[in-house]
Amino acid sequence: MALAKKIVITDGVFLTLKEQCPVLEGSMIIEEDRIIYIGENPSPQDLEQADEIISGIGKLFMPGLVNTHGHAAMSLLRGYGDDLALQVWLEQKMWPMEAKFTSQDVYWATLLSIIEMMKSGTTAFVDMYDHMDLVAKAVEESGMRGCLTRGVIGLCPKEVQDQKLAEAARFARDWHGKADGRITTMMAPHAPYTCPPSYIEQFVQAAHDLDLPIHTHMSETLREVEANVKEYGLRPVEHLYKLGVFTRPALIAHGVHLTDEEIRLLSEHDVRVSHNPGSNLKLASGVARVPELIQAGVKVSLGTDGPASNNNLDMFEEMRLAALIHKAVSGDPVAVPATEALRMGTIIGAESIWLENIGKLEQGAKADFIALDIDQPHFLPKTDYVSHVVYSASAKDVTDVWVNGRQLVKSGKCLTLDEEKIKREFELCFERLVQ
Amino acid sequence: MALAKKIVITDGVFLTLKEQCPVLEGSMIIEEDRIIYIGENPSPQDLEQADEIISGIGKLFMPGLVNTHGHAAMSLLRGYGDDLALQVWLEQKMWPMEAKFTSQDVYWATLLSIIEMMKSGTTAFVDMYDHMDLVAKAVEESGMRGCLTRGVIGLCPKEVQDQKLAEAARFARDWHGKADGRITTMMAPHAPYTCPPSYIEQFVQAAHDLDLPIHTHMSETLREVEANVKEYGLRPVEHLYKLGVFTRPALIAHGVHLTDEEIRLLSEHDVRVSHNPGSNLKLASGVARVPELIQAGVKVSLGTDGPASNNNLDMFEEMRLAALIHKAVSGDPVAVPATEALRMGTIIGAESIWLENIGKLEQGAKADFIALDIDQPHFLPKTDYVSHVVYSASAKDVTDVWVNGRQLVKSGKCLTLDEEKIKREFELCFERLVQ
Fold first, then answer.
1. Does residue A275 lie in a domain region?
2. Sequence-ordered list of residues with C-beta below 8 angstroms from that of A290, at least 6 positions apart, any chain
3. Which of A202, A268, A351, A419 has the most CB atoms around it within 10 Å of its CB?
4. One domain for residues B104 and B21
5. In whole angstroms, what is the distance from residue A70 CA to residue B212 CA?
6. Element at B108 (helix H, strand E)
7. Which helix (H) or strand (E) holds B171?
8. d(CA A366, CA B352)
9. A65 at the B interface (CB within 8 A)?
10. Could you tell me if A143 and A258 lie in one domain?
11. How far is CA A24 from CA A52, A123, A158, A386, B296, in A?
């Protein structure tokens, strides 16, 4: 799949995500992995020099979506035990099945999720799981960006803990910056309730040694918060703070149950929160205090969580949920307006995983962007495309996807992966697991 | 478009919605407007007698979705004033624009919404609006079912009130049972806060005279409830009860702010509630007490509300929201399980608008059903199709739609309406309105 040297898109509508000019009608030019021009339709001369000219008529172009928390391989468990409480679901349904996963299961299940994500406009995603070399291989092959981390549960003997930590560090070191820079890594103790304090401290030390951020689940359920207080005399935020987690740049998944004081503490450190509204609702975990977090200056991005607790990987749904639920819960109809939800799903997502110059359409930005078919009833009338994308669009409106200047999806078809083969292999994995 | 006399679908997966056998693999036979067989794949003889044989491989067949509250023509106001409070949005944005709507605007805007609804698997919908003859004409042409009602705002001089009531009654009488029975009607005073008490009583009398149900908005916002108490000394439920509204079969839209006592009163009368979660969230109206309503035996169905407050007409989203938000708000992860949400969107929806023998796939039921393309990553693995439909599917997974035995959508294309022409006319209407 050769890179097109110079791609010109003409006659399109562009959601730039820039404050001065959020919506622009005209043209965009991509050279190698960068946007080199965005503005009025170009001169005939520019068109002559193009390797590829794409008509943007009937299309909306916008930055790719960034999914900042998930476990892609859990697609193998989609629909396997719904309508249960988080702990029951984890302990009785998910973990016993996951214990049986082989590297090959993780590879094919991750590829299946990558296809779903790519085709629905996600261009970068965070993954916390096991068998991560195979996850990295899948990301490398797909052309997507991945911020990957071996998520470690430390409820095991010391020698197993040591082996897991070494493996997590080895993975993080081996893959950080690989695949033309599309893969980055983090260190991830799974959660305060699954890792003893001293083990979390070892992860903090490793993150310092490797100069990498930390990713962990935190304050997802009230039960977790109460258990943490019972066991350690501290709520999870202060617990992690005392263990040094916030001495590193950190990305926290969930953060549903936070006090004012905890929000202040997060805002005073380099801690970003991945808000997972679909998963939090489905598992009855609660509704995160997103307006307060944003108000305090915390970067809040969006994640789907794993496909077993969502149950799809449609980031348009997460943007819409983020824009909807906080209005009803707060009673404030301007809580998380459409523009904010769109930023959470794109540019703030990119910033939250330390991707620079990604998540906006402007000269010099990386060419990670998507096209939507807006020649459809639910995109009419042409009143407000930010509103339409957040309140009306969905995964399957996406027709084309580019990452790092390379087209990965064209007219709804994956260019980089063999979808039929992946679905077949995935089904074989599932059949073997349930036997 | 001739009716196929006998259609046989082979090798499909069927969500029957029957308790004993919710999912069935095999075949379904349709003759005229009815399902005459569902079960194992048929004999070669049955296939010989078929006018049309459809391969169901890779498809999931299920009852069509029933949208029990909306204002289809408000598609003209999609994205026109989002992120505002209900009263501000109504009084400053919606009503001034709606005052300019002509019959032709309503006709084309309703057709645009009908296309969106049909293509996303909705086979029957409730519409409360003005210029209803044109709405009925649009429904008649489309092949869908519509339960239609002239929604009347009574904040006007008595002679205008009289004229509107007469018009509403004339419409209801003229169209009830028309279009091969696909169109039914109701009497609809818009809301307790937009109709004086004596005017509501006149609607009750007219509903008795015509032997029709009543449809109205009720207890949508806290502000409405408080204003009702201030003006009439009663909350909306008791107010409408005293005006005789519940002496008729009634369909109430929203019912967000209800006390235990009010829920009991509704359950003791023939009152059904149309739950509109997307709209209630977006307008910050609150979260209806759906688990308590269901517990009390009230029929709770689902509606999108108008496209200006949703902003799409995707009933899969409403089913998902119904299954998700009540879990988080109640803290109960089994609140509104997937099966219940699916029933709310299909069979309970049909029952809520007095459609008999619709909303399930079984011998003798009316042939209102849809097909979804399940050969996609988000429908894998094949664990639980009820879960997949509620937690993972979306509008654009729908490929084919039948109503009353007639195919309206085939491979994603409308067979009965000219989509390109309707989009063009719709855009002309909008341009004229904003001039």
1. yes
2. A275, A300, A322, A326, A336
3. A202
4. no
5. 51
6. helix B103-119
7. helix B158-175
8. 52
9. no
10. yes
11. 21, 22, 57, 12, 52
Interface test with B, best of A122, A310, A312 (most B CBs within 10 A): A312
Q: Which residue of B lies nearest to A118 if distances are taken between CA atoms?
A: B377
Task: For residue A318, give the nearest of A332, A307, A304 by alpha carbon.
Answer: A304
State the pTM of this model. Answer: 0.97
Q: In whole angstroms, what is the distance from residue A306 CA to residue A193 CA?
A: 19
Contact list, B328 vs chain A (CB under 8 Å): 280-281, 284-287, 325
The neighbouring-strand residues paired with B122 are B65
Q: What is d(CA A408, CA A58) in angstroms, rounded to the nearest whole number?
A: 20
Domain for residue A435, yes or no? no
Find tokens 């006319």 and name the residue.
B425
Domain of A50: which CATH number? 2.30.40.10
**For A143-221, where are the alpha helices, taking DSSP H only?**
158-175, 197-210
Let me know whether A374 and A225 are in one domain.
Answer: no
Residue list, annotated binding site of B for substrate: 98, 150, 190, 220, 305
Task: Scan for tokens 């310092």, then name that residue.
Answer: A208
If asked whether residues B89 and B159 sit together in one domain, one would say: yes
Please report, in tens digits, the pLDDT of each residue of chain B (435 residues total): 454 589 999 999 999 988 778 899 999 999 999 999 999 988 888 788 899 999 999 999 999 999 999 999 999 999 998 888 777 888 888 889 999 999 999 999 999 999 999 999 999 999 999 999 999 999 999 999 999 999 999 999 999 999 999 999 999 999 999 999 999 999 999 999 999 999 999 999 999 999 999 999 999 999 999 999 999 999 999 999 999 999 999 999 999 999 999 999 999 999 999 999 999 999 999 999 999 999 999 999 999 999 999 999 999 999 999 999 999 999 999 999 999 999 999 999 999 999 999 999 999 999 999 999 999 999 999 999 999 999 999 999 999 999 999 999 999 999 999 999 999 999 999 999 998
d(CA B145, CA B408): 11
Burial class (CB in 10 A: 0-12, 13-18, 19+), A264: middle
Residue located via tokens 């983090």: A186
* Residue A163's CATH number: 3.20.20.140
Work out the minimum CA distance from A293 to partner chain B, whole angstroms: 19
Integer-rounded Cα radius of gyration of chain B: 21
Q: Do B374 and B253 share a domain, yes or no? A: no
Q: Please, which residues have CB within 8 angstroms of residue A125's CB and are 6 or more apart in sequence?
A: A66, A67, A68, A70, A72, A117, A144, A145, A146, A147
Residue of B78, B380, B385 with shortest CB distance to A380: B78
> Is A343 a member of any domain?
yes
Q: Do residues A12 and A91 both lie within one domain?
A: no
Are A282 and A147 in the same domain?
Answer: yes
Question: Is there a contact between A380 and B331 if contact means CB atoms under 8 Å apart?
Answer: no
Indicate the number of domains in chain A: 2
Contacts of B381 in chain A (CB under 8 A): 75-76, 78-80, 426-427, 430
Domain final residue pick, A353, A381, A405: A353
Q: Domain residues for B301?
A: 65-353
Q: Is residue A330 one of the residues assigned to a domain?
A: yes
A426 touches chain B (CB under 8 A): yes
Chain A contact set for B329 (CB, 8 A): 287, 329
- Does any CB of chain B come closer than 8 Å to the CB of residue A334? yes
A398/A319 same-domain check: no
Q: What is the DSSP string of A60-123?
A: EEEEPEEE-S--GGGGGGTTSS-S--HHHIIIIIIHHHHTT--HHHHHHHHHHHHHHHHHTTEE
- What is the number of residues in chain A? 435
Asked if this assembly's ipTM is beyond 0.90, the reply is: yes
